[in-house]
């Protein structure tokens, strides 16, 4: 009987530990957007560092302590915290004592999901950037050859409907110009004939 009770207690303790470490990325996103986006983003540096893969650089406990009170961690002499503080011009990160440990774990879960989601994107971006034949050219040249899409430049290619839309537009404008030239020439000829008759 004692063994059974002991086994149940152990299972419950493991279950409690497991649930404590589970994260809710959706909840984490909401908390992140409410409390962190003025200074942080996952992919880009804003006021503070980009947070992509921060869970690989720092332990969960360190992150929780730093978010709760960055200055406490810095003043403790933590070398990573001091280096970070120095790197970002001693900008003081506000304390977030209002966030629970689980809130911060959820934020880490959100950052983990965002970090995974873009794993393939940097390689694609790097390959495109490295092969950009218009790198170093003026913005005008790049915009003439490339269609500007949000966040990216996409080369115009014959397999793209936009290519044919542009070609069609150019042909249409050319026909209008040709029609206008013919009409102008005809009008000039008529005027010359009329003036010639009046002179006779």
Could you provide a short overview of the structure?
The chain contains ten helices and two strands. Helix 2 crosses helix 7 and helix 4 packs across helix 7. The radius of gyration is 32 Å and the shape is rod-shaped.
Q: How does this structure look, described?
A:
The protein has ten helices and two strands, in the order αααααααααββα. By secondary structure, the protein is mainly alpha-helical. A two-stranded antiparallel sheet has the order 1-2. A hairpin with a 2-residue loop joins strand 1 and strand 2. Helix 4 packs across helix 7. The chain is rod-shaped and about 100 Å long.
Would you spell out the secondary-structure blueprint of this structure?
Elements: H1 2-21, H2 25-35, H3 54-57, H4 60-68, H5 70-75, H6 79-87, H7 101-117, H8 120-130, H9 139-145, E1 146-149, E2 152-155, H10 161-199
Antiparallel strand pairs: 1-2
Helix pairs in contact: 2-7, 4-7
């Amino acid at each position: 009987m004692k063994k059974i009770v002991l086994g149940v207690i152990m299972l419950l303790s493991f279950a409690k530990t497991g649930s404590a470490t589970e994260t809710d990325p959706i909840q984490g996103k909401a908390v992140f957007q409410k409390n962190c986006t003025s200074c942080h983003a996952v992919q880009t540096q804003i006021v503070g560092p980009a947070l992509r893969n921060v869970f690989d650089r720092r332990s969960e406990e360190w992150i929780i302590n730093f978010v709760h009170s960055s200055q406490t961690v810095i003043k403790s002499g933590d070398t990573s915290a001091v280096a970070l503080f120095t790197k970002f011009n001693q900008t003081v990160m506000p304390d977030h004592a209002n966030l629970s440990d689980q809130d911060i774990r959820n934020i880490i879960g959100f950052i983990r999901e965002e970090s995974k989601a873009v794993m393939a994107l940097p390689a694609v971006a790097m390959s495109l950037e490295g092969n950009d034949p218009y790198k170093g050219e003026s913005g005008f040249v790049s915009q003439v050859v490339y269609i500007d899409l949000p966040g990216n430049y996409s080369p115009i290619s014959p397999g793209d409907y936009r290519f044919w839309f542009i070609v069609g537009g150019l042909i249409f404008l050319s026909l209008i110009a040709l029609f206008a030239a013919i009409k102008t020439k005809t009008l000039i000829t008529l005027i010359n004939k009329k003036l010639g008759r009046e002179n006779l």
